[in-house]
Design goal:
Serine Threonine Protein Phosphatase 5, Tetratricopeptide repeat, globular, mainly alpha, 21 helices
Amino acid sequence: MLAAEYLQRYRERGDVGDVLRAEAAARRSLRIQPRGNVTALSELAAAQLTLHRFRDALATVRAARGEAPAAPALAMSEASLDMELGDYDAARPLLKQFGDSGDATDTVAARFAELTGDLFRARTLLARAALRADSVYGAPNERRAWFHVRLGELAFEAGDTDTALREEKTALDRFPDDVQALTDSARFTAALGRWSDARAYAEHAVRVTPSPENLSLLADAQERLGDAAAANATRDEIVAVERIGNAQHLADRLLALAYADHGTRLADAYAIAWRELAVRDDVFAQDTLAWTAARTGHWDVARAAARRSTAWNTPDPRIWYHAGVIAEHDGDAAAALAHYRHALALNPHFQAGFADDARSRAAHLERVAR
């Protein structure tokens, strides 16, 4: 129980120390009761997952499933970890076997549907889970907010920006300091060119928990609003996060993308992307490697990683934009144009600056084709 409370406090406040305390408490519980202690194994796996020790977490969940093989929540934890490690074929039968077992199944099934290209099903399943979560008396507000954060992210992937912003607002109504809802709101408003709103959301997010993503968004907003000195200072904070605030490497993917997007510290970005790939090999790790490799001129690596990142038809426009840039560099104009069109069809405002670049590149390729 103490481990669970530490993990909940981490989700609300962002202190990684609470995750380490949760891990220690779960291990103490298991020393006291080594057998039949499924709850402690579940909390230990949750701590390991949060610390991005995905293979350790998978081993722990499988040990818990050995004690309770018919528990749907444990099966869904295993499927979720399979997806983090890029093993979507292993996740599929678990989802099929345990079917409609409530929020846990709907949430994981929604993630699987999203990753494998069925965005409509992902949104439908997650909306159903959100309705159930909102109806549970006594559920933590942070937990209720999480569903709406994810609904907002899925809506934005689908180009439904009004719904995306509305869902993030609902999340913030439930939990005003939800750092991901604040960061998403900053990202969505920045993509729409609403830079004052983006700055306000990003400032709030940074006050709660500074991350490479929300710091990068804040710097972009400051720069767009004419405060170059503040933007430079904010970007220095991203480096500080890398040097002193990333001991557990939880921000690796965000750091690599922040550097690659802005063309700074590119060698670091490329090295960080490889480090991230060593701990989880999902489509987003492959996309991060593809993008950082492209930005550093490692085109053979970029090409191979882009093939893997697009293999499951994941409907994240950024993946397809990155693949388009790589295909265009390789001289495959038809593939590049198809990738740019796909990214823009998903969301014509998918990312500030890069959506416009995708439009410009697509228009150029169309003119050349004529």
